[in-house]
Design goal:
This protein has 288 residues and is α/β, with parallel strands linked by helices. Helix content is 38%, strand content 20%. The protein folds into two domains: 2-176, Rossmann fold, CATH 3.40.50.620; 189-280, Pantoate--beta-alanine Ligase, Chain: A,domain 2 (2-Layer Sandwich). Bound molecules: pantoate (PAF).
Length: 288
């Protein structure tokens, strides 16, 4: 496995692979890898097959963090990440620095204007502009045939799919399932911030999904507002928890629904102390 930090060298290699007909599978990450990322890399390995190449990018993208968010303290451990990438079957780790991706006079952004507004977009107004821009850049640098994103960031995956379609990126977007700890907590690099009792309290996110599923199993449809307020009360029973949003929506259009049924998708963002966690799931599934 090789580590590349230069945009020019990465793109040069990608162009050579393209000319040679080498199939490339790509996993963009911000590093501090956990089992969720590793499942994406293994999926990319299978998609690339034995003769193809797997590229993993590690770049903590400043433009997707708001001014009061955790960019500076976002966990980083490059040597551990590099080892994990090798073990999971990556061929290249692409790890540019900020200047390589955003030169001083950088002034071009990608803004998706439909799926981005609600949920994460409402709470983090510049977030998807940063994600859309860096993903577009990474796709242009790595030139993959297929890129793998996690369902844990469901809205992100949908926004990326729309950008790919609208801007005609010749890449297939694959969405891989959320990986959870044994007790149901969705894997996230930010879980490392959860100290002491916060780790236990954070289980309220996946439990809220289980509760919503249970409610739907008992009735054909439920008013979204009633279910939202029941789940908010359930989550905020825990002293350190504050709900940012709980949304019920159509999984294709991301439009909120008034009446929740088995076809509905649910997403939530909750502050656990000062750590903001997100989770989501289709309400027709089993254990989230
Ligand atoms: O999901 C992430 O880790 C990031 O948002 C991504 C897609 C790597 C873009 O920085």
């Amino acid at each position: 496995m090789r580590v590349i930090t230069s945009v020019r060298i990465m793109q040069h290699l990608a162009l050579r692979w393209r000319r040679q007909g080498v199939h490339v599978a790509f996993v963009p990450t911000m590093g501090y890898l956990h089992a969720g990322h590793l499942s994406l890399i293994r999926r990319a390995r299978r998609l690339a097959r034995s003769k193809g190449k797997v590229v993993v990018s590690i770049f903590v993208n400043p433009t997707q963090f708001g001014p009061t968010e955790d960019f500076a303290r976002y966990p980083r451990d490059f040597s551990r990440d590099r080892k994990l990438c090798r073990e999971a079957g990556a061929d290249i780790v692409f790890a540019p620095d900020t200047k390589a991706i955003y030169p001083r006079d950088f002034s071009t952004y990608v803004v998706e204007e439909d799926l981005s507004w609600r949920m994460e977009g409402e709470s983090r107004p510049t977030h998807f502009r940063g994600v859309g821009t860096v993903v577009a850049k990474l796709l242009n640098i790595v030139l993959p045939d297929v890129a793998v994103f996690g369902a844990k960031d469901f809205q992100q995956a949908m926004v990326v799919g729309r950008i790919k379609r609208d801007l005609n990126f010749p890449v297939k977007i694959v969405i891989a399932p959320t990986i959870r700890e044994r007790d149901g907590l969705a894997m996230s690099s930010r879980n490392r911030y959860l100290e002491g009792p916060l780790r236990e309290q954070a289980l309220a996110l996946s439990r809220a999904i289980t509760k919503a599923r249970g409610a739907i199993r008992q009735r054909t449809a439920i008013q979204a507002d009633a279910l939202r307020s029941e789940l908010r009360t359930f989550i905020e029973q825990q002293s350190a928890m504050r709900v940012d949003y709980i949304e019920f929506f159509d999984p294709v259009t991301l439009q909120p629904v008034h009446s929740v049924d088995r076809r509905t998708h649910m997403a939530l963002a909750v502050f656990v102390g000062s750590t903001r966690l997100i989770d989501n799931a289709a309400l027709d599934g089993g254990r989230p």
